[in-house]
Design a protein that fits this description.
Elements (H helix, E strand, L loop, with lengths): L8 E8 L9 E9 L5 E7 L8 H7 L3 H4 L5 H12 L3 E4 L2 H15 L11 E3 H8 L4 H9 L9 H18 L7 H6 L7 E2 L6 E4 L2 E4 L13 H9 L4 H12 L1
Parallel strand pairs: 1-4, 4-5
Antiparallel strand pairs: 1-2, 2-3, 6-7, 7-8
Helix pairs in contact: 5-7, 6-7, 9-10
Length: 248
């Protein structure tokens, strides 16, 4: 049985200057929007990160400073990109841990709060770990019998991710077929995800830390630790919820 959509689902992938959600920037955005009627729409955009791209990052994705020198900055793209995304759910490969918080941070710098509260997420690597466990290339080959070419190109990676999700649902007919139900597979013990970086969760109305020495402790229980987070290299989205605990 195929994927059942109530609204569009955007498969997306980001190439960046590095792995820090706070300090690094996007250099390429690739996205495929899948509509409930089966139509697709593709966007592929290089972005000027306003900082040098380290050699190590360029060696992975093949994008160099000269390639993005004359490209628009994310802030210049943000309003139109938000309009394209805002009524959709999001899917990607390891997107919960990196792409979604990175995207949210870039939008925050542009003065836009996205993803919105009603956005649902499907991280295909989590679903794959639910039924198997492998890297993108290995997973693609297992489901299609073909080698993944052009790995680390954003469009190639998200095309592969989209194909894997479709194959997962075909092969495992006990899986749910809505984005909301797929997302719910990974909500642990009533721990409702709060921030995009996964540093906070909500349980029975209370916000708790989801990392570090105070993991599973209420945020309001230690103002000093909260202040450390607010001063540290954490995403603005995470800090917003920390502030709200003590302002409410």
């Amino acid at each position: 049985m195929g994927l059942q959509l109530e609204r569009p689902l955007v498969f997306f992938d980001l190439e960046t200057t590095g792995t820090s959600i706070v300090n690094d920037r996007i250099v390429q955005i690739g996205a495929i929007k899948l509509y409930p009627d089966g139509r697709t729409e593709v966007k592929n955009r290089l972005v000027n990160p306003q900082m040098p791209i380290p050699e190590g990052a360029s060696a992975v994705h093949g994008i160099y400073d000269k390639d993005v020198a004359n490209e628009p900055k994310f802030r210049q793209l943000a309003k139109a990109f938000y309009g394209w995304l805002k009524d959709s759910d999001l899917a990607g490969y390891n997107s919960d841990n990196f792409d979604i918080p990175m995207l949210a941070e870039e939008f925050a710098r542009a003065g836009i709060e996205y993803p919105t509260a009603d956005t649902h997420f499907v991280d295909v690597i989590k679903l794959e770990r639910y039924v198997n466990s492998h890297k993108l290339g290995d997973t693609y080959q297992r489901y299609t019998g073909e080698e993944l070419l052009d790995a680390h190109d954003a469009i190639a990676d998200i095309e592969a991710t989209k194909t894997i999700l479709e194959k997962q649902l075909e092969k495992h007919d006990d899986l749910p077929i809505t984005v909301k139900e797929l997302e719910a597979l990974f909500i642990e013990d009533g721990k409702e995800r709060v921030d995009f970086a996964g540093k906070i969760y909500r349980h029975e109305g209370e916000l708790y830390w989801n990392f570090g020495k105070l993991r599973d402790q209420p945020i309001r229980a230690d103002k000093g630790y909260a202040d450390w987070v607010l001063r540290g290299e954490f995403s603005e989205n995470t800090k917003k919820f920390v502030r709200a605990v003590f302002e409410g």
